[in-house]
Backbone:
């Protein structure tokens, strides 16, 4: 589902990503962890071209991305790719003037030109999936942070993506709200959704992820199942990281 080859990116003189190569199979859940500033979020954003990169290639959901995609055909490809690759951010980014259901149905109606009835039916199903069917008419300011994040997840799912990218989706939430969002993500993983999740939630990384990537200084320092990477890390970087967060 995802193939990354020698991906590199610089911010000015700083090398943010260095020759990153990795593969993700359909249905895998990858937890991306590591020290702050190591390149985790940048890597995730390069996977759907929210950030460009300097070298290498990304193949995701059947689309191939490369540096300097600027032509009209390239822009069309990026737009098509983003329909197949959903993304959920730390901040919920809901349209404040739209209700929960309208936030969810907007893209299918505009991008896919779905009939209003069809998009509404699908939107209500997704709200039920994230436990918010009864809040369909609520506006973002009437919802808690955890509820807003669950609406954001439903909105991403409304495009029926092949891949979901999550960039620290629970870091702005209190513990009870985090649990609600994590339960939704756990259900997605159990349902076979291919997911990459930048997270500080070690329980999620340990119990839900099929693999864990430890990102440090722009590289994947360690990659393996949670039983290996979290419980028995092989590299000094991973050992130090997990030791620090367990204190």
Residues:
């Amino acid at each position: 589902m995802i193939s990354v080859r020698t991906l590199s990116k610089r911010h000015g003189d700083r090398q943010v990503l260095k020759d990153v190569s990795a593969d993700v199979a359909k249905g895998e859940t990858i937890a991306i962890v590591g020290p702050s500033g190591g390149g985790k979020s940048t890597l995730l954003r390069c996977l759907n071209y929210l950030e460009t990169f300097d070298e290498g290639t990304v193949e995701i959901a059947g689309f191939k991305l490369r540096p300097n995609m600027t032509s009209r055909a390239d822009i069309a490809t990026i737009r098509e790719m983003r329909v197949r690759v959903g993304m959920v951010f730390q901040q919920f980014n809901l349209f404040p003037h739209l209700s929960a259901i309208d936030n969810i149905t907007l893209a299918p109606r505009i991008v896919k030109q779905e009939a209003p009835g069809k998009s509404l039916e699908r939107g209500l199903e997704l709200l039920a999936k994230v436990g918010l069917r009864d809040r369909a008419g609520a506006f973002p300011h009437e919802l808690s942070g955890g509820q807003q994040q669950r609406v954001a997840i439903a909105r991403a799912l409304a495009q029926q993506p092949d891949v979901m990218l999550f960039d620290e989706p629970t870091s702005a939430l209190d513990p009870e709200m985090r649990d609600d969002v994590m339960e939704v993500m756990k259900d997605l993983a159990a349902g076979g959704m291919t997911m990459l999740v930048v997270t500080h939630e070690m329980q999620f990384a340990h119990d839900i992820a099929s693999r864990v990537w430890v990102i440090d200084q722009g590289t994947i320092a360690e990659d393996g199942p949670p039983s290996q990477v979290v419980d028995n890390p092989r590299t000094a970087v991973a050992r130090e990281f997990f030791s620090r967060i367990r204190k």
In short: DSSP finds nine helices and ten strands in the chain.
